[in-house]
Amino acid sequence: MVVAPPASVLAELARQLVRALGPDAVLQAPEDVLVYEYDYGLDRHPPELVVLPRGRDEVVAAVTIAARFGMPIIPRGAGTGISGGAVPIQGGLVIALSRMNRILEIDADNLTALVEPGVVNLELSKAAEPYGLYFAPDPSSQKASTIGGNIANNAGGPHCLAYGVTANHVLGVEVVLADGTVLWCESSARERPGYDLSGLVVGAEGTVGVVTRALVRLLRKPEAVQTFLAIFNSVDDASAATSGIIAAGIIPAALEMMDQLTMRSVEAAFHAGYPADAGAVLLIELEGLAEELEALAPQVEAICAANGARELRVARTEHERALLWAGRKGAASAMGRVAPNYYLHDAVVARSKLPRVMRRVLEIGAKYSLPVANVFHAGDGNLHPMLLFDVKEPGVLERVLRCGREMLRMCVEEGGAISGEHGIGVEKRDFMSWYFSDADLGVQARVRRAFDPQERMNPAKVIPMPTSCGDTFARPRAAVVPTSADLWV
Ligand SMILES: Cc1cc2nc3c(=O)[nH]c(=O)nc-3n(C[C@H](O)[C@H](O)[C@H](O)COP(=O)(O)OP(=O)(O)OC[C@H]3O[C@@H](n4cnc5c(N)ncnc54)[C@H](O)[C@@H]3O)c2cc1C
Hints:
By secondary structure, the chain is an alpha+beta fold. It folds into 3 domains: 7-96, Uridine Diphospho-n-acetylenolpyruvylglucosamine Reductase, domain 2 (2-Layer Sandwich); 103-220, Uridine Diphospho-n-acetylenolpyruvylglucosamine Reductase, domain 3 (2-Layer Sandwich); 224-413, Vanillyl-alcohol Oxidase, Chain A, domain 3. Helices cover 33% and strands 19% of the residues. It has helices spanning 7-21, 30-33, 56-68, 121-128, 147-153, 160-163, 197-201, 235-247, 260-270, 290-306, 318-329, 331-334, 354-367, 396-413, 432-435, 438-451, and strands at 26-27, 49-51, 73-76, 93-96, 103-107, 112-115, 133-134, 170-176, 182-186, 210-217, 219-220, 224-232, 254-259, 280-288, 311-314, 341-344, 347-348, 372-376, 382-383, 385-389. The protein has a 7-stranded antiparallel sheet with strand order 15-12-14-13-18-20-16, with helices on both faces. The longest helix is centred in the last third of the chain and has 18 residues, at 396-413. The chain is globular, with a radius of gyration of 23 Å. Mean pLDDT is 92; it is low at 475-489. Flavin-adenine dinucleotide (FAD) binds at residues 39-40, 74-82, 85-86, 97, 117, 139-141, 145-146, 148-150, 152-153, 155-157, 205-206, 210-211, 332, 421-422, 458.
């Protein structure tokens, strides 16, 4: 059990932070720190203190002061991570990076941008647009989530099918370690010597250090884009078509699936033109040279037809295309139209397994009497079942957690992984041993300790806690227990 520091110690810590960062950069009143207890998932816990640094040196100051007090540090971007990664599950000092939101340089000749971690994902692409460039990783949360959070969670997104996830677009990162040391880590993708420490930071979920700057790759916007809506009578047919498109060697820029329940809520919210009577749709985007698309489009149409598509529509104008994407990217927020709460899961399987795995997802949902809405990156085999419920129903949360756990377990048994992009956080920490051996986890724990021997940087996240002094890791517990009963998810 973790014990909160005595009030006198906290008061002294706060005093030192205020002296270093100024009073407007330190939050300590319970009503001020409360909003930092949550990241859109089920786990909640408030921090003792929050700092809002304006630059790298203020991060160093905050980290160094926290080190003197042995205080846990939890880096935070926009708090959209869902898996509890930014939740201070043992209390501690949250370092919220939202004020460090400057785009320091766009180098159009070398196709790179140097940014602070609090830059919102979509703002970077907007800033790069006048140069004909954009930042490819585009999580559906891109209007809110930050580049620092994208790096820490190795975020994916609809357009990561063709261009790769965040790891493929990070060329270097500046990191502040738990003792205040500042490192510049280069990616080996940039053809630089030495260990690829940037590769360690990407996807480490804030357990290595606080990212304070990042050099990222920008891509040139494609000459032509075509967006199709393939309409199917069932999730099964749409899954088979997804598998068929990839097996034919066609890699669309995006290949997203929505089922009927999702479309109904999306239509009610966005009026984007999704057919509410269809079993499922695929949103297929092709990008490249105009001639290339002319050749690819009929092939995609033939594969969809062979797998039972009843229609293939094409977005005729930029407005139609934008509406379809607004519906897709706003699908999670539209869910409020069908249920007061949802629990969004994240797992990944081979695309060829999609038809079978999607059938199993729906069966497991039915077994627990929970409606399941599906909207996901089908081309990547990255599932996002949303379990719909009303938290006011007694006992429902336990059922939701057991159902989600069984879905995850099934994906692992099918050869998949427990997260495609939302990270492990605290939510899936104890399921890591389904996927990694004790030896794998032991090495990961040692790597982490090499950067942070006292494990103060985002503690109790990602790597399961050892059950004894040996390198044996905790087996999954029955469920993640939320710390608050009055959930809003
Ligand atoms: C509606 C919705 C749709 C989503 N769609 C997608 C999607 O399509 N693809 C996808 O990949 N994810 C998606 N997500 C999940 C989430 O938005 C991403 O994981 C995103 O990258 C998190 O960014 P954030 O700024 O909110 O990070 P936070 O939630 O604040 O933090 C996430 C993790 O990063 C760490 N962290 C944050 N900033 C830093 C930093 N500067 N240095 C070190 N560590 C840091 C935190 O400690 C935490 O472990 C979605 C979430 C929602 C709510």
